[in-house]
Design a protein that fits this description.
This protein is α/β, with parallel strands linked by helices and about 240 residues long. About 35% of the residues lie in helices and about 20% in strands. The chain has helices spanning about 25-30, 35-40, 55-60, 85-100, 125-130, 150-160, 205-215, 220-230; strands at about 1-10, 15-20, 75, 110-115, 140, 165-175, 195-200.
């Protein structure tokens, strides 16, 4: 037996923001003040850089959208800013628990990461724990921003392998649009979502197969596939 991912969950808000939500002045500024705006656009990357690994991938996939003010994006899901981010996080967590076939009181620890959390302190972890009814679990923040998922996976796997925990729920939240300024050059790339996975003890062959499949697909693709299997089901409280 070894630690592995036994369940995946993905929550997307229902509301969708399309490119016509941006005012015409946004596109005009992209055309007329392009060089000036590059200084405040963290997504701007020089077309060629000898110091960038895999430069050909950038040229192939990003360069075709270099003249697009929306950077290739057409639509993005947007969460209600009046609803706490922990609510979407908990819904993703509920789907992950369902996918793993375990109950909330089976969880020993909830690890949370949120780009925009509901309070300065604590993290969203305790709120997720409360909303899901994980009465045996503590809720902790493990923040690595874009690298939060592998950081949480590493910590959760160590706890499971050592016997300190049976099941660890790991939640990653990206609900940025409540603070997204639509006048900023990078604003079109942001959508809202929450993702989650459960780490528990699995047969070594099964754990390795799940880990390899996740690595081949990438976590977002794996979550999307998991969500597709439950396309019409929603978490209830």
């Amino acid at each position: 037996m070894g630690a592995g991912i036994s369940g995946l969950g993905l929550w997307l808000p229902d509301a969708v923001r399309e490119n016509d939500a941006w005012p015409p002045a946004f596109v005009e500024a992209f055309r007329d003040k392009r060089e000036q705006r590059k200084r405040s656009d963290f997504t701007h990357i020089e077309k060629r850089s000898s110091g960038r690994p895999h430069d050909d991938l950038f040229v192939r996939h990003a360069l075709p959208y270099d003249d697009d003010p929306f950077k290739g994006a057409r639509r993005r899901h947007v969460a209600d800013p009046e609803v706490p981010t922990a609510v979407g996080d908990a819904r993703a967590g509920a789907l992950a628990l369902e996918d793993a076939g375990i109950r909330p009181d089976d969880v020993d620890l909830v690890l949370s990461s949120a780009v925009v959390q509901d309070r300065l302190v604590p993290s969203n972890g305790p709120a997720i724990q409360h909303l899901l009814g994980c009465t045996r679990a503590a809720g902790l923040g493990v923040e690595g921003y874009c690298a939060s998922a592998p950081a949480q996976l590493d910590l959760a796997s160590g706890l499971v392998d050592s016997g300190r925990a049976r099941f660890v729920l790991c939640v990653q939240s990206h609900q940025l649009n409540r603070i997204n300024d639509l006048e900023l050059p990078a604003s079109p790339i942001f959508g809202d979502a929450s993702a989650a996975f459960v780490v528990g003890r699995l047969p070594v062959r099964s754990a390795a197969a799940r880990a390899n499949a996740t690595a081949r697909m990438s976590l977002p693709s794996s979550l999307a596939a998991s969500a597709a299997r439950r396309s019409q089901r929603t978490a209830s409280w």
